[in-house]
C-alpha cells in the first residue's frame, strides 16, 4: 500500500510538470500570433461558428466541407465566452488538456503509471500538437476523441467486456462527426474488435502482424525495391523514350506526378507481396475462405458493433446535416474523397520525406519527430540484444490502421490527417520500450535523449517559427496589416458594407459582414469545382461591394493549377475592373489589399507588393516602384490609401517613412516625388528604353519623355532626368513623374 501511494505521488508530480510544459508551449502565442499562411482554416471555422450564432446554417447557407459537431461546439463556445479568435483557440487548449489527461489513463490501463506518464509526456511534447493545440483546428478534437476511444478499446481488449467495445466505437463514431480524418481509425478499430471476437480470426491478424512488423519484413521491402530498380533500368535501356521515363519510376524515391504512374505503384506492391509470401511461406487462400465464413457467421454481433458507430453519426449528422441540406453528403464526404488516392499516398509520403531532406528543408519534417525518436530507440534497444515485446492487441490495431490509412482511405499523406494512426503507434512503441529488461541507467539515458530532442523541436515551433526564421511559412506582419486595413475601413465609414475576403480570417478578425455561402472559396474552387467567374457573379448579385486579397491567396495559388487559374482570375479582375482603396505590403511578401467592386476599367493600375508600389498593365504586375534618397531605399514597406480621389503613398526604409501623392486617371499615373529624392522603377521583365527612336544604354541619362517597351506593353514616361541604371531599372528625378500606357 505504501508503494502504491509513492507511485501515485510520483505520477502526480510528473503530471504536474507535464501540464506546466503543456500550458507554456500552447499559451506562448495563443493571444498574439497571426499567420496568414495557416489561418485560412481558422478564419473559416470561426466565421462559420459566428454565422451559426447569427442564425445561418452550414450546408444550406454556407458551403462547409466538414461534419457539423466541431462547428456547433465552437459556436456554443463563442456564444458563452465571447466571439474572438483568442477565445476560439482556448477551446483547442482545453480539449488538448483533456487529451493529455486521457493519454495518462490510456497508458496506465495498458501497463502502469509509468507508461501513462510517458504517453502523456510524448503527446504534450509532440511538435505537431504544440502547434495544433494553439489554433482553431479540428485536429485537437480528433486527438481528444481518438484517445478517449483508445482508452475504452484497451479496457475491452483486457477484459473482453463488450460494453467497452461499444463505448470505444461510439466515441470514435462521435469523433467522425467532427472531421472525417478519424474514419480510417474507426474502420481499423472496428476490424480489430471484430477479429478479436473469434480465436481463428485473431490468429490470422496476429500472424499478419507478426509477418509485417518484424525485422525480416525489411528484407522483403528491400528485395521489392531492388526488383523495381532493376526493372526500371531494363525498361529504359530497352525503350529510352520520354514516355518510358515518365511511367517507369521507383515509387517513394520518385514523386508521383501523373495518373499513369499508378502502374509503377501496383508493380512494387506486387513484388513486395511475392517476396513476403516467399520469405514467410504464407498460405492465404484457405485462410481467406475460412475467415470469410467466420465473419458471415458472426453477422449479428458485427451489426451491433456497426450500430455503435452509426448511432452518434445519426444523432449529430441527421439533424445538423442531412435534414439541413440535400448536398450535405457531397460537401462533407464525396467531394473530399477525390482529393487523394489510396496506396499512392504511402509512396507520396516517402517521396515527400526524402525530398525535404534532399532539398535542405528538414524543418518540413518536424511533425515526424516523435515517431522517428521512438523507432530509433526501438532499434537501438533490439540492437543491444534486448527483447522488445509488443502488445499483441496494439500490434493488431496498428497494423489495421496502417492498412486502412494507406490502402483504403483517400487521405492526404500529412501527419495532421493521419494522427489517429500515429497515436496508436506511439502507444505501441512506448509500451514495448518500457517493457524491456535493461539497466536503469541506459533507460534514463534514452528517455533524456528523447526529451531533449523533442524539447529542441518544440523550441523551434514556439520561438523560431513565429519569427519567420524557419522555411515553414509564417507571415510575420499578418496582424499589423489587418489592423491597418481595419483602421482604414473604420476611418472611411465603410464597416457596414458587405465584403468578400479570400482569406476568411481577415473578415472574421475585422468583424466584417460577408455573403455566407462564398465564405470557403477554396472549398468552392477545389472541391465544388466552381470557377472564379461564377463566384464573382454570385458576389455581385448579393450586393457584395468590397473584396479583400491577401498573402494567403498569393501563396496558395502557386500550389495547384486549378487554384492558380481561379485566384489569378480574381486578381486580374480586381486590377482591371475594380477600384483599389487600400493596399499595404512588406518586403517579406506579406500583403493585404482592399478593392471596391464596380466597373472602373483601368488598363494601367497600381497596388502594393513586396514592400513597394506595384504597377500593373492589363491585370499583370510589371514593375515595382519605390523612392530613393541617396543610398536610402524606401522599399521595406509601402502603404497605399485612396483619399478624395487621389492615392496617398507611404513608403518606409528601415528607419524612416516618406509620403507622396499619386493620381491615376485615364491609364496615366502622376506621381509627385518628394523634394530632392528619386523615383526608382524596376521592371520585372527585360525592357528597352527608347528616346527619339534610339535605344538608351545602361548608365545613360536623358530628359523625358521616353518610351519603355516589352513584347507585352509600351509605356511613356515623363520626368526631368531619367537614367537607365540596369536592365529594366530606371531612376527618375524631378518634381512630377508621369507614366502613361500607350
Automatic annotation (TrEMBL):
InterPro entries: LipidA_mod_glycosyltrf_83 (IPR050297), RgtA/B/C-like (IPR038731). The keyword Lyase does not apply. It holds the Pfam family PMT_2. It is a multi-pass membrane protein. It is found in: Cell membrane. GO terms for molecular function: pentosyltransferase activity. Residues 66-196 form the Glycosyltransferase RgtA/B/C/D-like domain. It comes from the Archaea. GO terms for biological process: lipid biosynthetic process. The chain crosses the membrane at residues 12-31, 86-107, 128-152, 164-197, 218-239, 263-284, 305-324, 364-381, 393-411, 417-436, 443-463. One of its GO terms (cellular component) is plasma membrane. Keywords: Cell membrane, Glycosyltransferase, Membrane, Transferase, Transmembrane, Transmembrane helix. This is Glycosyltransferase RgtA/B/C/D-like domain-containing protein. The lineage of its organism: Archaea, Methanobacteriati, Methanobacteriota, Thermococci, Thermococcales.
